[in-house]
Amino acid sequence: MDVETRQLQQRLQAAQQLPEVLMLKPTTASTNDDVREIAQKGIQSALVCSAQQTQGRGQRQRQWVSPEGNVYLSTLLNTRTAIDGRLALEVALNILHMPSLEALNLQIKWPNDLYSAAGKWGGILIEPLNAHQAVVGVGLNALPVPKEGIDQAATSLTELGLAQFDRIQLTAELYLAIQQAGEWFSHDSCN
Fold first, then answer.
1. What is the mean pLDDT of the segment spanning 84-109?
2. DSSP bridge partners of 73
């Protein structure tokens, strides 16, 4: 196990949120596809993160430009409430409240864009596997992205004021934010 994987494992273990499968890859076709493949084996919790994707995608199968150095993460989320469009909003709201991002002036643009006045800095892709389980993918532009091939205003967290970019910390916070979103989303089913 490499140093970064061990660090991430320790942070998630300390938060009592360690998934059954945890993979950090230098590159992959799509982290969502990786998690879907893991879920097909009957595993209930997984986290796959990559520094680059070669076939990243967004809503309606649009290409998600995924240059090396940013954060591309997918996880398996199980909910008590049947999955609907509100889940993307819950995930986005929880991301905005991550400790590393709270001081930045960040917004969301329905249904799945992580936005700011300077443009899009991330996106969320939710792909349901069944009524109560989905692959939740998030791409964050931590570093500036090349403007070629992007059809909208794009920016990065460092351009928006994120002073220190710690990929492992950001990944841990992002995973925990998604898991918390699943809890909040399922909250109504407890009544």
1. 93
2. 49, 138
> Rounded to whole angstroms, how far apart are CA atoms 47 and 189?
25
Q: How confident is the model at residue 41 (pLDDT cuts 50, 70, 90)?
A: very high
Put the strands of the sheet holding 46-50 in their side by side order: 21-25, 46-50, 71-78, 133-140, 119-130, 113-116, 107-109
Strand partners, 74: 48, 137
Distance CA 52, CA 68 (A): 4
Phi, psi of 35 (to 5 degrees): -70, -40
Q: Long-range contacts for 9-15 (Cβ within 8 Å, ≥24 apart)?
A: 11/168, 11/169, 11/172, 12/47, 12/172, 12/175, 12/176, 15/172, 15/176
Q: What is the pTM of this model?
A: 0.91
pLDDT of residue 6: 95
C-alpha span between 135 and 91 (Å, rounded): 12
* Tokens 């931590």 found at: 142
Q: What is the pLDDT of residues 144-183, one digit of tens each?
A: 887 776 677 889 999 999 988 899 999 999 999 999 999 9
Q: Give the other-Cβ count within 10 Å of 68's Cβ.
A: 12
